[in-house]
Known about the structure:
homodimer, alpha/beta, two-stranded antiparallel sheet, 40% helix, globular
Amino acid sequence: MTEKPCVDVALVHAPVVNRNGEVIGSAVTNLDLHDIARACKTFGVDTYWLVTPFERQQILSRQIVDHWLTGHGRIANPDRGEALSLIRICAGLDEAIANGRKKWGGSLRVVATCARPRPDTIAYARLRQQIHTGRPVLLVFGTAWGLAPEVFEKVQVTLPPICGAGRYNHLSVRSAAAIVLDRLLGCKDGKPV
Amino acid sequence: MTEKPCVDVALVHAPVVNRNGEVIGSAVTNLDLHDIARACKTFGVDTYWLVTPFERQQILSRQIVDHWLTGHGRIANPDRGEALSLIRICAGLDEAIANGRKKWGGSLRVVATCARPRPDTIAYARLRQQIHTGRPVLLVFGTAWGLAPEVFEKVQVTLPPICGAGRYNHLSVRSAAAIVLDRLLGCKDGKPV
């Protein structure tokens, strides 16, 4: 792929579920901003949407981002600002979807990630191929114990769970996002996967 | 691969380099323990070595791990303890290498990771194949701005930098470790990569 991929990432803090399957809102964490923004920048993601309906959390997130874009962080570590400049804060996933459709047209595919198997899955290789032929995609990640059921009503397909040696599948969302972006957009040994 | 891979991971806090290339020691961070332990558990890693020569840092790391193994964390989130139980703390990389040789024999391959290209590289596909035929491997990751030159004297080969769309390659070590483990040990769509 020579052209920039049409891929956005959304990290949803509400609605998500807790360990008991109850629908909740989670708190923004500093390293979710940094780690996922750095992975997004590495793999050519256009916008990293931070989705939280809580106004105080939006203000806090804005302060963290601004520290690296215009505050002391800009001088201390300009690479970090380059990554965090991809972040846009919004109250709900609908805004990220609407923005993607506006900039890339109606063919935007909204793709969820989930640690549990779901019926409506798309293979990594197939989605990768679609991205590399120019299909715009919004990748949706959930914090806490994952996306709430109502979020899956907004998505067209879901990527399969990331699996390894056994049944343990409790990756952090930071690790999951890095792996998903690498599988869809990474190069191996300097060549496309 | 049906049998458990013979793979250890080491996260080196000293000697590493800072942004100016000076050899330093870095501080242990809580999420390096959690995120990398969770990725190690997911992908079947045997031991996750936390390498720091600083005694106070070793004590702090032990306290964090113990919280999840025997403290309140054990009840609050037993999955976390399962991952953190892979952690062993040591003062230097030599201890991790010696332990690997003791449990798996002299054929242990010590493999570094680096964000900059190096001459002595091994392709991901080749190392993956070697691991899947039973070759024992110790994967070495550096904190801060990466492993110090003297660490590369202890390793046999280095994995190529993780690359994406452009020149930006400032992934967090947590993201890099997740991607490397997935490339070497992950399954895609339920099948080996």
